[in-house]
Design a protein that fits this description.
single chain; 37% helix; GPX_CS; Glutathione peroxidase; Glutathione_peroxidase; peroxidase
Length: 204
Amino acid sequence: MKKLILALICVLLAVPTMAQKNIYNFKVKAANERMVKLKDYKGKVLLIVNTATQCGFTPQYEALQKLYDTYKAQGLVVLDFPCNQFGGQAPGSLSEIKAFCTGNYGVTFPQFDKIEVNGKNEQPLYSYLKAQQGFKGFDTNSQIGKYLDEKFSKQDPNYAKDPSIKWNFTKFLIDREGHVVDRFEPTADMKDVEAGIRAVLKLK
C-alpha cells in the first residue's frame, strides 16, 4: 500500500511538468538567490546548456559566446546552467564560475546558479526538457564520442533509450514560442548547432 501511495505521489508531482506546453512557467535561480521567470524570455530563441569549468568540452564556452555575439541581435540568448553531476567538473561557487568564464572566454550571456539535471533533485525545467527531446546519440566518428559511447554502453547496453543528460554541454534549442525543438549532445559539431539556431531564427 505504501508503495502504491508513493507511486501515485510521484505521478501527481510529474503531471504539472509534463502538462506544460512551453518553458515559460518555469523559474530558475540566478545570482543572490534571485528567481528568474523564463517567461521573461518570450519571443527569444534560447540555447539552454548545462556546463562545467573543468571538462574536456569546456572550450565550447568560446563557441557559445561567438554564437551569442553573432545572433543576439536577431533574438538568440544562451542560458548557462553549471552542473557538477558529471565527474565533479563544475566545482566552486557561482561567482567563481562567472569569474572563470569571463576571464577565460569573455562570457557575457546569462549564467544561473548550479543545478542538478538528473535524479531526485533535478531542476524541474530539465525534467521538461528531457521529456520533450530525448538523447540524440554521441558522434562516434569523434574520439571522445566513441569513448563516451563505449563508457555508457558498458554501464547499460540500452543507455541510448534513456533521455537523461549524459554529460556536460548538452544543449536544448527553444523556439520563439517556448517549444523545445532540438537537442544537441556535447559531441555534436558546433556548426550543426549554429545551423539549428539559424533555422529557428529563420535566417538563410
